[in-house]
């Protein structure tokens, strides 16, 4: 097993009390930590009045990211997720209750999104070169062959035996659309149990959860990138006890035959989704914001307007000159 380095960066003391604290109240310390897991970087910025407790809490949360890497990473052949991919096409595989519950949630997201969310997209990601790569244009026959092995209904779950079985050989599940969101929520829960009341957790900068607010702020200030110019932002949000996930065509893409192809795959067609540049989703839980970002991207503004949940906020940047980026009304 490759050794993973846990990096902790600690700023010991702020020189003055945070604004809004009355005289005699303790100064707030700032602690930052990061760890590489699940193919990306998880980072935490936290504030508190007890430096030692802050350090211990952040370290515990980041250790949870490492544990989830062992459970959910499809880049690690020894992970439980990879074991399912290796065996479930041949026989039912008994899995942990945690993974069973997560796969059950994935099936429900697929059902609610009419198949636009689908963790069996793995064969398509490989044939398009997006698995461990930046992508390339496959032959149509390759796409058809991969599409034959895609479909969330191929995931057969037995709650009594706590097993998963794939209905046909060659099916592969990909955690890319849900794993980081699930992990961020787990890290947030650990921090909150440890008494941390001000923290920002980020997974690869695409899925974020905000606990409370930093000193003298009304929330954590997050900029939504302009998909046409990454140095600019098109909107600013203040997150407080909320999550935000973004899916954008600029995250991973390639050009072929004069057209741009992104990694956001429509599992129903076998081709990258077109017509949207980016979608940002704000929800109470990060697993929901991440899981729904791609279906809203794929299915478009009109579908989202009819089907979004009342507590969700959605920001669209469409690939249309006559339609500026805007919040869904």
Notes on the protein architecture:
The protein has helices spanning 51-72, 80-87, 97-112, 122-127, 140-147, 179-193, 286-307, and strands at residues 6-11, 29-37, 40-48, 93-94, 155-158, 163-166, 198-203, 207-211, 220-226, 229-239, 242-248, 253-256, 259-262, 265-266, 271-272, 276-283, 313-318, 326-327. Mean pLDDT is 91; it is low at 1-23. The N and C termini lie far apart (49 Å). By secondary structure, the chain is of the alpha+beta class. It contains seven helices and 18 strands. Helix content is 29%, strand content 30%. The protein has three domains: 1-74 and 175-217; 80-173, ApbE-like superfamily (T-fold); 218-329, Roll (T-fold). The strands form five sheets. It has a nine-stranded antiparallel beta sheet, covered by helices on one side. It has a three-stranded antiparallel beta sheet with strand order 4-6-5, with helices on one face.
List descriptors:
alpha+beta; T-fold; 329 residues; single chain; nine-stranded antiparallel beta sheet; globular; disordered N terminus; 18 strands; 30% strand; 3 domains
